[in-house]
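User: Predict the full complex structure for these chains.
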Amino acid sequence: MKFFTALGAAALAAGALATQASAKDVTIGLMCDRTGPTSVTGTALCPGYHDYVNLYNTQKKIGECKIVAHEIDHEYKVPAAVEAYQTYKSENAVLISPYGTPMVYALVQKMAEDKLPGTSAGFGTALAGNGEAYPYMFPIAASYYSQAAAAVKFAKDKLGGSLKGKKIAYIYYDNPAGTEGIPVLEKLQPKEGYELRTFAVPAPGVEMGPQILDITRRYRADFVISHLFGRAPSVSLKEFKRAGFPLDKIVGFVWAGSEGDIKAAGGNEFAAGYNTMQFAGVGQDYPVIQQIKAMYKAEGKPDPDAMQYTVYYNRGVFQAAVHIAAIENAIKAKGSCDVTGEQVRDGFYQIKDFTLGGLLPPLQITKKDHEGGGWVRIFQVTKDGYKPVTDWYRDYRPEISNLLIEEIEKAKKK
Amino acid sequence: MYYRESGYYKTDYKSDMSLYPLPISRFAAFSLLVLFFLAAPVVMNEYYLTLLSLVAIATVGALGLNILLGYAGQLSIGHAAFMSVGAYTAANLATKFDLPFLITLPAGGLMAAAIGIVVGVPSLRIKGVYLAIATLAAQFIIEWIINHSPEISGGAQASIEVPRPTLLGEKLESPVELYYFLLIVAVIAVIATQNLIRSRIGRAFVAIRDQDIAAEIIGISVFKYKLYAFAISSFYAGVTGVLYTYYLGIASYEQFQLGVSIDYLAMVIIGGLGSILGSVFGAFFISLLPIAIRLFMESVGSIFVEPDVLAQSISQLRQILFGVLIIVFLIVEPDGLNRLWINIRNYFRVWPFSH
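Assistant: Here is the predicted structure of the two-chain assembly.
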């Protein structure tokens, strides 16, 4: 009994003590998944986010306002995310960073009602980029539509400038997110004249030998576009290698090419040549990463472990940078730290020429386009890391916006 | 001294059959209603109301699973799949036909019940862990079907946005309104379960759980009642799914995956199998303990370690502490939180003259 009383008392005390914010603090609600099914991402992304916030507060701060990122780990569970959201709201957070597609969906309506902006980089559907339908949600990163279009463009350049008569294989994780690339590939087919076949990999995506044999032996694809998650990318690399398919004729979407995937596939040596699509820069050759390193060095600490997983770590830095840029714009406009969610939302529209030395794409967020333009960059796996093989680019924008309009109409009819 | 069962004489059938036969339990039930209906919305801010709302939803689901597992003794790990059936049924009805929740709520439940009956059919032949695997199959099959039929799952990424529920032309959207909406459904679920388990059906469930051959011999149609158990349990699950859908404003298959089924199993096992109060305790425990641990560590942890380090390690620590606490509770009382409560009650029954 005593034990439970003590526990209850402790919990109550904890509630009473809950962090007291000073007037100069601007709070961001940062949701993470460090212990759930996507912890591989969370354990690198969230440290990156915190490091940039610390860097900003110590070195780049404008005025008196201090950014506070309150992290809550929701373990990829929706009820926990709803609770976390209410915590942030009670702390007067001005910006929410939900993590995970189902959580983004569960919160998007509430956030619009409460006028709190948020970002969903890499989550949710392409439709969410429509700023008129979702005024408070900013995907800021290329949607799967944009990624599919960019992949076609990349294949075209790689196969000598024309896709006429070429065979493209689309291998995807068999869930709604995985199928999202298909309409784009079908839409671009008549224009580019390629042959297309799709290959579904059922959950949990660790068994795909038959599909890959099909692609390499029967269909004899010229180029493979791979949209896989979780353990699936590393398995696919192993299988493609075994089938003797050249890895530089494969491009993986944004969740299929982290250091962890390469390691699990058998290391850089093994996976060299594989092309990965990214919405934030990869590697450590960016001034901001060097500044974070210097910050750690000045404190006499070694670099954090998470830093070597640059794909996800840099995405954390990317998100933090965009969030803080929006908040900074709001602070500048208002002239005090006491900004509201609405003002921060307007701050997103004023982000211009902000690339942190190439870590970020040249985002242009407008009232209509919350995707920021749909920029991606391809990084190829090399023997000792990644090298960029393209600049930030995008393509087939008119086709994609037509497709979006069609899809919205379809969704309305349903 | 305060809690006595003696001295109350039942002089007619009505009092013998009443749901709360003792004055103290009537008083307790009444004060709980006052507490949750009147006091809570006044005293609590939005944050705590959200917590209670989530607990209310979880209570309905836990009750459903407890009917199946605790009372009828049939193990199911496909509970979340039935929630998704309810969620998508209600979402489709609400968006395509503009039906109000008074129709979509039972419709979602009934649809889930119908699917539950189908899934329950193998339960006549297979038992225990084998049945668990059959229900696991149901979890995956239902998920697959929802994912692959746009007619069910709507447009983008198998998710359907649902407008807030309306009652008498009034949109329920503030936290207090949603809280009342969920609380009323949860209270109805609790009272319905209380009545169910003392009816013929409920007693048949218990008979089947304790010894199905004996139950058959005394004239209970085992097959029929097992299907009842699946249907009723799935109905509750379906309603839970509808509540989630309305509460979050979206039906998405990712909210109802295998992990959620396991969470609900944990709720009924920790709360207490075969007990209504246990389901409520379990819903509170599994929903709130992680939050309590986090708040505790955020405030106390900063005394011991630096804030930066704490922020990075808090979720791992919480995971460990959560697991440890579940083990501790199960060792302290394997019969669940409900048994713990009964022990406390029995202690006070003779207090202060315990010898």
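The radius of gyration of chain A is 22 Å.
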